Structures are given as C-alpha cells and as structure tokens.
Write the structure tokens for this entry.
Amino acid sequence: MSPTVVPGIPSLHREVRLAARAEGELTAHHFMIAEVPVPEPEPGQVLVRNRVMAVTAAMRTQMTGIRLPMASFVPGQALWGSAVGEVVAAPGGGFTPGELVQHPYGWREFAAVEESRVRSLAEDPLPTPAAHLSQGATAWGALRLAAEVRPGDTVFISGAAGGVGSLAGQLARRLGAGRVVGSTGSERKAALLRAELGYDDTVVRGAGPIERQLRRAAPDGIDVLLDTVGGEQLTAALAVARADARFALVGALSSQLGGSGAIAPVELDPGLIIMRRVALRGFGLHAHPDLPQEWAKEFGQGLREGSLVFPHALLKGIQQAPRALSELTQGRHIGAVLVEL
C-alpha cells in the first residue's frame, strides 16, 4: 500500500469567532472570520485539517448570555462543534498523518486537539466524511434506550425534518413501530417526510392547533414521543399519550430557534402523567460514549443496503458557516446542516 500523502501545512488559516452575543435574529454582525496562524500541536495533541463541520440548534443557545448546562461561546473567541478531518501532524504518535478523525473543534480550518478528544474513524467505514456528522446516534439511542420502541408502537417525533427527526422516522420503522407521525413547519417538508423518510402522517406547525392535528394523525393515541421541540408539541403529546407511554426528550427547538435563543419552560399536567403512568426521560449522547461507534455500524449497514438515507444540506467554504447556522434557525433545510471546509 502506498503511503498517505498529506498536503503541506500553510502558515495561516481561518476561524469563525463570535463577534457579539445574539439576543435576537442571527445576522452576519454576530460573527467574524479571522485569519490566524495555524496552531502548533503541543505534546499530547494532534493537528487536524478540518474537512466538514456540523451546525446544530444548540449552537444558537450557546450564543446567548443565559446560563446553560453546557459551555457558552465567548465573544471574541472561535465557536466550536463537531467536525471531521484528517490528521496532518501527530507528535505523540497516537494517530497517523492522513487518518480520518472526529473531534469537537469545528468552525476553523485547522485544529490542535487533545488526543483524548479525538476519535479515529478508521473502524467506522461510512461512504463520506459528512455521514459521520449525522445526528442519528441521538435518534437511535433515544428511541432504543430512552423510549424503548416496541413492535406496533405509535410513535410521534417532533421536529421531524431536522437532523435528528429526519433519521428518527426511518429508525422507528426499523425498530418495528406500527405508525410513525412527525411534526414540521411546512407542507413541503411534510410531503417529503411522508414520501421518503418513513412517516405515515404529519402535523404542520401553523396549520391549526397541534393537539387537534395530532389526534387526527394518531386517533388511538401515542405510545412514544421523541421530542426535539418542547413547547406546545410536548403539551399536545401528553394530551394524547396512551397508558405507559414513554417520552424521550432530546431538544428544545421551539425556544432555540426563536428570536432570543433562550430555553423556555413548559407547563405539563402532572395529573395526566400520574394517571397514564407516562415516563419522561431526558437523553444525551454524553452519557453514552460507546453509542456513536455502535451507530456508525448500524448507519453504514443501512446506507449500503439502501434501507436508510441521510438527508442533509452541505454548504461549501468556512465563510458560509454563519449562513449555515442562520438558515438552520430559520428552518430552511431538511436534515443535518453541514459545512465543507
């Protein structure tokens, strides 16, 4: 086998920084693109040339000044988030130049990353680097481990056209769900969900009360909720929950994609929760470090068989990263939103 050829390392690269806290709708003024020296990897670090990065709704919340259970972005400093790239320097010897890896320092063309925060993708063969940035691991874990989808279940997935939801409908089917209903923001997206992404019926935000639409789409009630939205959709799901329903909560798009980006509280009826024995569980990948590798195998098999598809939008160039996040918050895309660097 011929040796991997790694292109030369330039002296400068670009990174996207937070210019100002975002309290309203995102604009170009909230970001700045800086040209800075390529970092020198210290002992225990690797230098990665980023190839593709993900933008997610949580990043909108991290741009505010509100207190969060995760670190917020800092004005004047580079943003961060999941990225895939190739190792170009590994002084510690734990990785090989040319090796494809995933790490949490996107929003820049080169990143010096602690080896402990780098995951080799050599054993996770997927058709493209972008596929490693799907949010399917969250959907897969939430449906299997938190909601425990069972054959014949009626499953409601809020935010069904997003990075999690666009895979969750397919995965609910894969796990044996009898009926899958999803919510989205437009009739155009709803039609695609029904035609291509495993959904039997849809609820469209703005087309009438969510609870009324959900009762029509799931007349016998729901057994499972995979919630990426919160707000009115979580309340409606509880209203139509069957006995012993299982709710997995993974996001709060109703507030994250709003003007302020702040996470808003939701009023739930404790009487319904008690009488119907509804289980509500939060789910996050941080508590399941082995899940991404498990998901990569499942995803790779599904893509090769043609039983799974990966909906995503790919914008090209680091200068498009601010636009990518803005368009995600506006709901312009279906599936994951990625930037090729």
Summary: Residues 291-305 form the longest helix (15 residues).
